[in-house]
Every structure is written in structure tokens, then in C-alpha cells.
């Protein structure tokens, strides 16, 4: 019996060669409306639905002759004839992409609802219900495989039909999730009773957090220019899971700065940050901040990488280099190392409030991103000593970096660069003491930032002994007076922000 396919697609990618392949294998192709016009305009011989059976449009009642043919037993001709149905073997149907749904559906609530593709989605659901006999194909990337299967087996094997049905349901779920997001945003529901999200696969990763773990990178449907998930890789081997989480930390960190800046990230912690009049100057300071930890790190810049900076970077083993762009000369220099990954990310794009998603065993945590800047808060200076202009420059840099360190965190800065960091400690005193020890000599006149309140005098005593002249911290402890008194005793200026930046 001759096989029959129904085609109605929103995404017409690859549909012309696919239909040619179907016709070449003797499949009768039926289509209607815009899809049929598109196929016929490309000189393809496609048929209309038989008289009395039509593909419904939005707002009309579902036409039973069509859908009965999709769900009926293909081998039961009596059943098909009794229902005035048309037997169908292949359903090639897809919906508007989730990105199209999210970008186009910006009108009134009524317009949003009217744009829901009821008919094609219903066809897909019916076809998956009968996936033992009917093959439903929603993804153009499967066209080549389907033709190969049909050529080899005269049909698509049951296991492959099941796989196609599973993909069809994912296609539906992604579309439904995008529509739900549009409608939820329209009614301004901030914390819906269910959270349905959809992400699209970008690439299989070189490895997971450890070499024995597999990992995949998915990106959200709505493009985010400043996201590593949407980065353009210009050179280098495949990214790993650790490359990406470090790169994400680096991009989040560097967006704190308006002036030329470079940050070095290792194990999701900034270990060296420098700012300057030029990106070369900023890189030199970031390198000097920790010339040991920069080995095998992720480096990010918020300006184009020029040839001079690239030549300095090329001297080291770096895992990833991220920038808005690279000059042609810089690319020539850096590509001499075949493995270094070069990523172009539009770091200059303004960040807008959004949610962070963190997975836990069997659940998902959702919170607002921490986009708070120092200029957004009202600081107090309870000490007798007021910060000098140089102190303020050091304090602002230290506060920006501490915000992106794993808690408990302490950062020491001087001369437009970090001197040292203490991160991931179980207590704030330990983080402070470690940062001071790592800084060594040269801390006289430096500034210290703590992401946790300094409730006792011990951390302040250690800072005073190191010659630190200014401290910035959240405050808010019942023992604040004790640390303030110790700062006064040693002539240290202390800035209280009233906010903390814990990062677990």
C-alpha cells in the first residue's frame, strides 16, 4: 500500500530536499495552505487533502476525518472508511520556535492567546498517541535520518518512531513553556505555583566537573548577549563544564566595571583583578596580583584584546580568554596556541534583573540576581578617620571583587589591583587572615573588603598590623561597636554598607 505523508510546517528549514526525498521513495505527499504554496512554488508535486477533509484553522472545530486518520489503525481500512478518514503514515509538522513565540508575542492578552497554534499542536499530539504506526517528525535535523531509514527498511522502525514521538512531546512542551512564560509575564505573576522552563541544547561538553562525568550546555531560549551560553567561540578545543562555570563567574565579575578592567578566575573565584587606562595596563595589574594562580585560569577583559596584550597572554598557559572582541593581530598571536579557547561575549550589554536557577537534589532554587552596586546603597562611616580619595578607589575595587568571591570572603586592594583574596572560608576571621598572609609585604595603605560583618576586633587588629588603612564591610552585628572602636584605635577608616554579598 502506498505510504502517505501530511506536511504542515512553521519552520521550513530543509523541507524542500526532504519532500523531494519522500517523493523519490514513492510517498504520496499531502499539504495545505502556506506550506503547500511554498512546496508548489519550488516545483514539487503535492496533493490537497481529499474532498470533505480539511486542515482546520485557528478558531474552527477540530475536523474528525483528519484526526481519525492520524490516530486510527493504519491496517484497518474498514475503520478508516466508516469514519470518512484519510490514512496517514507520516506527520511532518512543527510549531513556531520558542524564540519566535517569546519575541513576537508582545501584544495584548487576547493577541497572545490567538497566536497559540492549536491545530498543528493537536496534530502532533494525535500522531504521538499512535506512534506505533504513525511517525511524527518535528525537527528538520531528523529529515536525513528518516529518509535513510525509509530507504533501508521501507519504513521507520518502531524504536525510531518512539524516539521521534518523545522528541515531538519535547517540542510541544517547549512551545507550551514559552507561551506560559509570555502569559505569566503579561499578568505580572512573580512567583507562579509551577515553574516551567525550557532550554535548548547548544553543545555537548568536553567533560563534566570531573573527567568521568558527562555534561551538556543548554541555553535559554531568549538570547542574552552578555551570557557565556551565547558566546561565540573563535578558537580552541571544546569547552568543559569547569571552563563554563569559571567563564560565567568571570563575565559576571567584569560587568561591575566601566573602566578598562581584566579579571582572572580560578575555581569560580576571582584571584586577580586589575583596572587601568588601557586594557594592557589592566592586564598587567591582574597578572601581578597573582602570577601563580593565573596559570591555567580563565581571563576576561571588558575591552578588545589588542596585539600587545595578546603577546603577554601568549606567554602563559591559559584555559580561556574572554573579551568583547579581538583585533586581527591579537587573534593571530593567540591562535598560535591550538588549545586556548577564545570566546567573544558582548560584555558591554547592560544587565537587567532576572532570576538565578540553582539545582538541588530533587528540586530547584530560584532567586533574583544580585545586581546591587555600591552607588545603590547609602553607606555610613562610623569611624573618626574618613577614607581618603585613594582609600575610596581601593575600597570600591575591593567591594566589587568581594561580591563575586565564595563566602566567607576577604579582598585586599591597592594601586588599582587586588593584592590578595581569601575565599571559601568557614569563618570571616580566617578569610581575612588568609588574605593578609597571601598579600605579604606591601599592604601598607591598602583597603580590605569583607562580605560578612566584622563583629569582633580580631580581624580589624590583623588588618591594622598589616598597615591596612580602610575597611568596607556590611555591618549589622550587635558587636559592631567593638570593631569600630578597634578601627578608631588604629586610625582605620571603616565604611558600613548595610548590605552583604554572600555567595555560596
Description of the molecule:
By secondary structure, this protein is α/β, with parallel strands linked by helices. The chain contains 17 helices and 19 strands. It has a 6-stranded mixed beta sheet with strand order 7-12-11-10-8-9. A 5-stranded mixed beta sheet has the order 16-15-17-18-19. Helix 5 (98-104) runs parallel beside helix 9 (158-186), helix 7 packs antiparallel against helix 9 (158-186) and helix 16 runs parallel beside helix 17 (480-489). It is elongated and about 95 Å long. It starts with a strand and ends in an 8-residue tail after the last strand.
Number of helices: 17
Work out the radius of gyration: 30 Å
- How much of the polypeptide forms β-strand, as a percent range? 15-25%
Proportion in helices = 25-40%
Distance between the termini: 63 Å
User: How many beta-strand runs?
Assistant: 19
Produce a short descriptive summary.
The chain is an alpha/beta fold. It has helices spanning 15-24, 33-41, 64-71, 77-82, 98-104, 109-114, 118-129, 143-153, 158-186, 241-254, 279-289, 307-313, 328-334, 389-402, 428-439, 457-465, 480-489, and strands spanning 4-9, 28-31, 90-94, 135-137, 199-204, 216-220, 232-235, 261-266, 269-275, 298-301, 320-323, 341-344, 355-360, 363-368, 410-414, 417-422, 447-450, 470-473, 493-496. Helices cover 36% and strands 18% of the residues.
Amino acid at each position: 500500500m502506498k505510504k502517505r505523508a501530511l506536511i504542515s510546517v512553521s519552520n521550513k528549514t530543509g523541507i524542500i530536499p526532504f519532500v523531494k526525498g519522500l517523493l523519490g521513495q514513492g510517498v504520496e505527499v499531502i499539504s495545505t495552505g502556506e506550506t503547500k504554496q511554498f512546496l508548489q512554488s519550488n516545483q514539487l508535486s503535492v496533493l490537497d487533502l481529499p474532498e470533505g477533509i480539511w486542515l482546520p484553522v485557528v478558531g474552527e472545530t477540530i475536523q474528525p476525518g483528519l484526526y481519525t486518520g492520524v490516530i486510527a489503525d493504519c491496517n484497518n481500512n474498514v475503520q478508516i472508511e466508516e469514519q470518512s478518514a484519510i490514512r496517514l503514515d507520516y506527520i511532518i509538522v512543527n510549531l513556531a520556535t520558542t524564540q519566535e513565540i517569546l519575541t513576537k508575542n508582545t501584544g495584548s492578552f487576547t493577541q497572545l492567546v490567538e497566536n497559540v497554534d492549536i491545530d498543528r499542536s493537536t496534530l502532533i499530539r494525535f500522531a504521538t498517541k499512535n506512534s506505533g504506526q504513525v511517525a511524527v517528525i518535528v525537527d528538520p535535523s531528523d529529515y536525513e535520518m528518516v529518509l535513510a531509514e525509509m530507504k533501508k527498511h521501507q519504513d521507520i522502525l518502531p524504536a525510531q518512531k518512539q524516539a521521534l514521538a518523545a522528541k515531538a512531546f519535547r517540542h510541544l512542551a517547549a512551545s507550551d513553556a514559552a507561551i506560559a512564560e509570555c502569559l505569566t509575564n503579561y499578568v505580572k505573576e512573580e512567583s507562579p505555583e509551577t515553574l516551567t522552563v525550557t532550554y535548548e541544547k547548544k553543545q555537548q561538553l568536553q567533560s563534566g566537573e570531573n573527567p568521568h562525568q558527562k555534561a551538556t550546555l543548554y541555553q535559554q531560549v531568549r538570547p542574552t548577549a552578555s551570557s557565556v551560553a551565547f558566546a561565540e567561540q573563535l578558537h580552541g578545543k571544546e569547552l568543559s563544564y569547569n571552563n563554563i562555570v569559571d567563564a560565567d563567574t568571570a563575565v559576571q565579575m567584569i560587568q561591575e566595571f566601566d573602566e578598562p578592567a581584566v579579571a582572572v578566575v580560578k575555581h569560580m573565584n576571582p584571584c586577580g583583578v586589575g583596572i587601568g587606562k588601557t586594557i594592557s595596563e589592566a592586564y598587567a595589574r591582574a597578572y601581578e596580583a597573582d602570577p601563580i594562580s593565573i596559570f591555567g585560569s580563565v581571563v576576561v577583559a571588558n575591552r578588545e584584546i589588542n596585539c600587545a596584550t595578546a603577546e603577554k597572554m601568549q606567554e602563559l598557559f591559559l584555559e580561556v580568554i574572554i573579551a568583547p572582541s579581538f583585533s586581527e593581530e591579537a587573534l593571530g598571536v593567540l591562535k598560535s596556541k591550538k588549545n586556548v579557547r577564545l570566546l567573544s561575549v558582548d560584555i558591554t550589554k547592560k544587565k537587567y534583573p532576572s532570576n538565578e536557577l540553582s539545582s538541588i537534589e530533587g528540586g530547584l532554587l530560584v532567586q533574583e540576581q544580585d545586581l546591587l552596586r555600591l552607588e545603590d546603597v547609602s553607606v555610613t562611616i562610623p569611624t573618626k578617620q574618613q577614607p581618603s580619595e585613594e582609600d575610596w578607589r581601593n575600597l570600591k575595587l575591593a567591594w566589587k571583587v568581594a561580591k563575586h568571591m565564595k563566602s566567607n570572603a576577604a579582598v585586599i586592594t591597592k594601586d588599582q589591583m587586588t593584592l590578595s583574596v581569601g575565599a571559601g572560608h568557614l569563618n570571616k576571621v580566617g578569610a581575612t587572615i588568609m588574605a593578609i598572609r597571601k598579600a605579604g609585604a606591601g599592604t601598607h595603605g591598602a583597603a580590605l573588603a569583607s562580605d560578612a560583618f566584622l563583629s569582633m576586633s580580631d580581624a580589624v587588629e590583623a588588618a591594622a598590623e598589616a598597615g591596612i588603612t580602610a575597611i568596607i564591610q556590611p555591618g549589622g552585628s550587635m558587636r559592631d561597636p567593638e570593631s569600630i572602636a578597634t578601627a578608631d584605635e588604629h586610625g582605620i577608616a571603616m565604611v558600613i554598607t548595610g548590605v552583604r554579598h554572600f555567595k555560596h
